Amino acid sequence: MKHLSTLLALLALLLPCSLRAASEEKENPIDAELEAAMEKNPSTSGMVHALGIARDKWDKEMNATYKKLKETMEAEDFRQLVAAQKAWLAYRDAQVEQIGNYFGKKEGTVNRVNAASLITDLTKSRALFLKSLLEGAEE
Question: Per CATH, the architecture of 29-138 is what?
Answer without folding.
Answer: Up-down Bundle (1.20)
